[in-house]
Specification:
CATH architecture: 2-Layer Sandwich
Bound molecules: zinc ion
Order of helices and strands: HEHEEEEEH
Radius of gyration: 18 Å
Number of domains: 1
Strand content: 25-35%
Distance between the termini: 39 Å
Shape: elongated
CATH topology: hypothetical protein PF0899 fold
Number of helices: 3
Strand order of the largest sheet: 2-1-6
CATH class: Alpha Beta
Helix content: 25-40%
Length: about 120
């Protein structure tokens, strides 16, 4: 499943920043998903919960921010956001466009639960 490998990729990035997480130490992971990335958010959330359920990251929430599709128009040289399935420049109507954003997924931030640290 496509989303499972993405969830594992996210988990890998979390472990890069928090190599030795304690139980409940990671509150949430904020990710940005482009509208053209073909990632199903519900499925990704499900996979992330599934692979973290027996780990110290259990309970960490996946916060998903949807990124619009950005294009650069070769005709009028502007950058705009478009709403698929319309793939034309909103300013001049040209279809000579290059998609420059909204196709990928990246981890935006990782929020830690500081309260847990203080209690111990
Ligand atoms: Zn244009």
């Amino acid at each position: 499943m496509h989303e499972l490998s993405i969830a594992q990729e996210i988990l890998g990035i979390v472990y890069q920043y928090v190599p030795d997480p304690k139980e409940n130490s990671v509150k949430s992971v904020r990710i940005r998903i482009g509208k053209l990335s073909n990632i199903l958010p519900d499925s990704l959330t499900f996979c992330f919960e599934a692979i973290t359920t027996d780990t110290p990251l259990k309970g960490a929430k996946l916060e998903i921010i949807h990124i619009p599709v950005a294009i650069t128009c070769s005709n009028c040289n502007t950058t705009s956001e478009i709403e698929p399935p319309v793939f034309t420049c909103p300013l001049c109507g040209s279809n000579q466009i290059k998609i420059t954003g909204g196709t990928d997924m990246r981890v935006d931030s990782i929020e830690l639960n500081d309260e847990i640290e203080e209690k111990t």
